[in-house]
Amino acid sequence: MRTAYQDQLEDLTNQLGAMCELAGAAMERATQALLQADLVLAEQVISDQDVLGEHSARTEEAAFVLLALQAPVARDLRSVVSAIQMVADIDRMGALAVHVAKIARRRHPVHALPEEVNGYFSEMGRVAVELGRTAQEVLLTGDIDKAARIRAEDDAMDDLHRHLFNVLMDREWKHGVASAVDVALLSRFYERFADHAVEIGRRVIFMATGELPEYEELPPETWRD
Amino acid sequence: MRTAYQDQLEDLTNQLGAMCELAGAAMERATQALLQADLVLAEQVISDQDVLGEHSARTEEAAFVLLALQAPVARDLRSVVSAIQMVADIDRMGALAVHVAKIARRRHPVHALPEEVNGYFSEMGRVAVELGRTAQEVLLTGDIDKAARIRAEDDAMDDLHRHLFNVLMDREWKHGVASAVDVALLSRFYERFADHAVEIGRRVIFMATGELPEYEELPPETWRD
Asked: Is B2-217 a CATH 1.20.58.220 domain?
């Protein structure tokens, strides 16, 4: 019985890991769809959302059954409760990838992005995918040091977001209002994606230690090139 | 013992209700700060976020203790798990109010909104506050019919959001890029606030019935003036 229970707990973690992978892959494709005005890829991200939705429902259900039948305590209870919370975060990461894909689709065959900001979004996409990968890794390994370092990657995303807003706001933006609105919303979607990855890191720390660190307690970004 | 347990469950619901009230009040004040470029009010919304944060931590902790010590099943278990999920939604509603207040503060003493769109935001603020109130009510009463009808109010918010984007995108927008970006983000903050209220309604239905309805299964907005 204990073995089945431990298996169930491990399954829960693996399901969350698989969800992270799907969310990261969705953001990777959405970014490519955005940068290349690729309609087929955008449609794929949008239709794949159901797959992540099914995973969410299944994972939530599994957590619920564990609570009902096994009444876990201490660290196991923290794992199951955290799993329920992380499902919401990962689900949202997938939804944000879909938002990106929908903007790419809406503007197709035109590129949603003026070429001037392609570099920002290429980098935001790269950081987002990296964050998804790190979130998956810390989920599966329970590595709390690496979980805490997710904040540094999020800080890099925030920097990109801020710089992009300076481009929109302070310089002479030549691409019109519609394009500025798209860029602002897109930038926000990437920034939120990163925030959810940080949340996953915080929850992994909570699972291991019983303490949920404040964002400010995590190590910030150090100097980068 | 059972009585203490029932009291704890009821306390949990009351705490969520109190959180909804705080989030609604925050959005009410944030809207006023936005429409009237009221810096004092904006600052108040921003500093009050800690109060909601403390409530969140306390409510999550109470739910955790209930799970650990009482190992609830069936409907009670659904209530506790839903409480944990709703804490995240209500917390986010408060964060969105803070985002609105921060834009009001950043633009002060200038009004963040061109007068042309004041009416939209006044109405979005009204609907948001109403949604916060309805969410609180269905939480406390468990009225699942009313919970389902939250979607109709959310549809009204989506309409406002869409119309506002038409104003930004299709007509000749005369207020510049910075202002358009502010308006787009603000509109999104209100729309997301409403989405979280719908989530609370869905969770209340889940608590009562064990079935989590899809958004599309909820009754849509009927014809309005």
From this structure: yes
